[in-house]
Amino acid sequence: MRNRIGDRFRGDMELSDLPDHALTNIVNIPGSRYASPWALIIRRFIYATILLALVAVLAYLDEGGYTEHLTFIDAVYYSAVSMSTTGYGDITPVTQHARLMNIIIITPLRIAFLILLVGTTLSVLTEESRRALQIQRWRKRLRNHTVVIGFGTKGRSAVAALLADGTPASQIVVIDSDPIALELASNQGLATVHGSATKSDVLKLAGVTRAKAVVVAPNLDDTAVLVTLSVREIAPSAMIVASVRESENMHLLKQSGADSVVISSETAGRLLGLATVTPSVVEMMEDLLSPDEGFSIAERLVGEDEVGANPRHLADIVLGVVRSGELYRIDAPEAEIVEPGDRLLYVRRVF
Questions:
Q1: Which of 150, 297, 326, 344 has the most CB atoms around its CB within 10 Å?
Q2: What is 293-351's CATH topology?
Q3: Which PANTHER family match (predicted)?
Q4: Which pTM was predicted?
């Protein structure tokens, strides 16, 4: 069944197998914002038009210096033929003044015109090559990063928590099919991949196979299940944290391979219920969940001088002990004594 689901959402061509220059419209790396080829061409075309108009005006003002009396159309024609180095020879400068003007003014403008034409082609080719090279280097170096699937409200909050907790922006990759969401992620200095995370080639392009953790935060629960299945299939060792709206879908995500599941609707509902009775409790909970200010819940490795002690007697306010991947609350018998290798969940003061 899992293979059938995967085949349903796979495209005919694997994006991860495409050459790097074909990925410039799919992958965006921070710092890779260059002008589009069309913007370069239009800007250079405007410059070239200005040079053509300038030469046409100069020739028209010196209408008596050429082999025939020039109308303005003749001046524009002479400008186009001369600047493009076509040189039909039907209109040529004959007076000393006209020839001097061609040597001192029009010839340098002609050179500048040619530089614009050649430079536009070189700029477009160089920029595409530069972006392709940057993508190539990024794909080779990407290791032990965090992939955030979906940059909606939940995804943005997850990224904010990661950044506040010290995760570098260079170690976060966002996958989304919404260009506006990807633009918001890029503005925060995050690498982005445009596409549907239900497709394995999009996941591979984001380096899911080498990722340390994957945050699954789409808007729909069924999408979350499909994405989790795909991620677990290609990244067996990655830690998957998924979000669902409804609690009845929690077991589906667990069966699909999620290590941890957050139920967004129930969490919000509990806070709403508490807010009607004890608003201050909700305020404190929001403070603990906001990593930027006040207090926050953090995790750290136990110190050598803390081994053998009761976690209740430590300097930090300890909420639980993580041992061999298992969480024990502070009131559990297993958390009576701190052992080597334990990790402590504690309340940290954010300055």
A1: 150
A2: Alpha-Beta Plaits (3.30.70)
A3: POTASSIUM CHANNEL PROTEIN 2-RELATED-RELATED (PTHR43833), POTASSIUM CHANNEL PROTEIN YUGO-RELATED (PTHR43833:SF9)
A4: 0.59
